[in-house]
Amino acid sequence: MAGPLDRIDLKILRLLQNSGRLSNAELAETVGVSPATCHRRTQRLFDEGFIGEVRAMVAPRKVGKGALVMVGVVLDRSTPESFAAFERAIAKLKFVLDCHLVAGDFDYFPKIRVGDMEDFNRIHGDQLIALPGVRQTRTFFVMKEVVDNAPLDF
Amino acid sequence: MAGPLDRIDLKILRLLQNSGRLSNAELAETVGVSPATCHRRTQRLFDEGFIGEVRAMVAPRKVGKGALVMVGVVLDRSTPESFAAFERAIAKLKFVLDCHLVAGDFDYFPKIRVGDMEDFNRIHGDQLIALPGVRQTRTFFVMKEVVDNAPLDF
DNA sequence: GATGAAATCCGAGTCAC
DNA sequence: GTGACTCGGATTTCATC
Question: Which of A45, A98, A117, A137 to probe by mutation at the B interface, max B CB count within 10 Å?
């Protein structure tokens, strides 16, 4: 069942990545198979986890989340427990869009969306530096969003 | 026409953000209005740009893009022309998921997805340091994706 | 083992109110 | 905003290769 993807599966994946609300009928016609076949293949892409979820991209500025900030975080100690505690805590913060453990001068790199700089400063003082094990943070305010959340190229 | 969003509009937005393929009938029932009303409201959310596009989230590892890298970029000069040239060039690179102009020790912060470290090293040497005006780059390999592309909280 | 044709059922989209 | 109505698509079944 969990076979590799053929050219048609890849076409479906790419189409749904760019237009997640395409109907099965439209998909079927575009990729050149019958609606029944297309339906089965699309189902499989979901069932086997090739597609996680389908998400409407909400315009951040339209819902009062126009400010984007990246933060370099350094922890006190580099122990597994320290990392785990930090990760558990930051995963709960809803304004964190992205946060990865990296190799280099920082430990983590959260990307945060808030209403404005004032919001961020409050959150930084109240919640970020209070996260478990944080020794230091370095804030990078985003002045211009050049490429934001581009679709995956595959 | 471009009025503010009421509680029902927000509900629709949130539902579509988490399940972009919900049918209008399901949406309508969940938010508690008739299908006709729901259809009109949803249409408006698209027409007025509250929702940009709907995207199937493809699992990166399943399509051979398991490696994530963040790169701090410093340009030679801080002139508008220099920034513009860099932005035009990096926006064309398909493996760049994110790239923002920031305030702080770096100028730009591209986030890049590739197959593996070897891929990245090739790309770094061939394409990143060759971008117009790049003086220096600092690479942060992602060792663990803690939060990736979380939905917007609003 | 996968396909497409057909058949059923349900939702999309539009109307009048 | 709702209710009804029509049309077309979603989803299943089944014969076929």
Answer: A98
